[in-house]
Amino acid sequence: MRNVEFALIFREISLYLEMQGVQFKPRAYEKVAYTLEAMEESLAEIYKRGGIKALREVPGVGEAIAEKIEEIIQTGKLTYYEELRRKTPVDIRALTAIEGVGPKMVKVLYEKLEVKDVSDLERVAQIGKIRGLPHFGEKMEQKILRGIEFLKQGSGRVTLGAALPLILEIHGRLRELSDVDEVEVAGSIRRRKETVGDADILAISSRPEKVMDFFVSMPEVAHVLGKGNTKAMIKLKNGLDVDLRVVPEESFGAALNYFTGSKDHNVALRRIAQERGLKLNEYGLFRGSQRIAGKTEEEIYKVLGLSFIPPEIREDQGEIEAAKKGEIPDLVGYQDLRGDLQIQTTWTDGANSIEEMAEEARRLGLEYIAITDHTKGLAMTGGSDEKKLLRQMATIEKINRSLKGITVLKGAEVNINKDGSLDIKDEVLAELDVVGIAVHSHFNLPRREMTERIKRAMRNPHADILFHPTGRVIQKREPYDVDMDEIIRTAKETGTVLEVDAYPDRLDLKDEHVRKAIEAGVKLVIDSDAHSVNHMRFLEFGVAQARRGWARKNDILNTLPEKDFIRSLKRP
DNA sequence: GCCGTTTTCGGCCCGACTGTTTTCAGTCG
Questions:
Q1: Fold of A3-153
Q2: Residue A572: per-residue pLDDT
Q3: Using the CA of A273, which nucleotide's C1' is the nearest one?
Q4: According to the model, what pLDDT value does residue A86 have?
Q5: Residue ranges in chain A whose pLDDT is less than 70
Q6: What is the C-alpha to C-alpha distance for residues A329 and A317, in angstroms, rounded to an integer?
Q7: Under CATH, to which class is A251-324 assigned?
Q8: CB distance A471 to A507 below 8 Å
Q9: How far is the CA of A319 from the C1' of B7 (A)?
């Protein structure tokens, strides 16, 4: 069983316990579920390696949960969980996924109306049976129906690439208002998380009601979920929830910190405040009733004895400890990239010519790009064979002679065949400046075979960069089953560079793999994977992902000038 | 049910908004 499946069970247990009004236990189960979802090594492997004792080393796993994990591994089921489900046979996960429906409501609906799943709920809501219940009314009924309707439309989360431009647009509009003194985007968008469930915007204003009125009447608004004097919540037509909060100037930093999160980061900060006899909330850092910090985030971290922590790494993944010791890394900056090593053109499936891509790259301030069109294994894109590739190389040399201010490197995105060989001959690869290798077929190989396949390809002395190493497409395609720890080890052994593909639907490597790679001393590049001139600006999403993985400038090879970059590849 | 440079027992983050209430529980972030 995979970790996410364990996580699902523990999350459901958390919901069942909360439904019963049990104290504290729900938090414990919820927390462990969250940990498991983000954990690379599988519980089955951990258990095999060191039994119960090893399981208990996983954060959030104590005696009771370790035993439950063991039971699931050994028998494939969990008596405790089945008992909970038998006692209250409701689809609690689906029901609580509805906006505004929580465990307590599910309990009432089950006991009074025998609602067991979403279709039961939809039925009783439609025939008006909910409004008769104590503490329920007609509005609640309508809200539930709207929530169900929305749930049918999709997952509710969108990629950062989809959310960020829209939110920046709204941000810009608010900034222009005369009643707004200051406005910032907070939330998971500020942390640059790869997908976002909602957006949080904070503002300072002396006339908040004006700002709220403007906010809820923007043309993108599908409906208003709530509106008060300090807080308004809307749902946009594209499904994204956006919250706007107006806060006092002296609390702006505290609010920005609070609403940027993550939740776990905030909890850790508040604990530190508590230890020092202070209280931290969205209005400031207080000693008794006296505010001792809150206007800026910087002063809050300072008073707590921490160095400033960049939003991208506020995930309670060791950044608090690092900040205590003053060891927060100097993360790669959004302006640090000098090159882009994965670009497709009209030679295969790109929309623009080599010259157009080069021109756009120069406009964005880059010094070099590699043209990496697909190779013949990817027939549908008109992938190059050796002959076509040699022809393209000659063209690039000609273009370089007339281009000023930017260098075009000769490259290719070479297919890794099923057996780990490459689909272009070594003699031709040797002629290229940059060779990217990538999996584009046979995605469903067993883990062992897929790992060996990619490792073999990485051992090719001409293979410089492993492109989009896990092959995932966010919300569309799962990563192929590959042992990333082994890939990272092989990268270190062979000097192969791993790519952070910045295309917002990929973001591959993901943050946790970035972190593992740099801890192993593996070098990375950040590429746009541009298929048109408009895609080249995606590089910033790659930088964000690298920052989330704690990458510094010298971990990222395309922060180097061209000559140094080339020299740092495994076959200079 | 977890966790510990205060603790192996006694804690466990904090506040706004909503809908339905005459004072608050539930939900959400």
A1: DNA polymerase; domain 1 (1.10.150)
A2: 64
A3: B13
A4: 92
A5: 153-156, 379-380, 476, 572
A6: 14
A7: alpha beta
A8: no
A9: 25
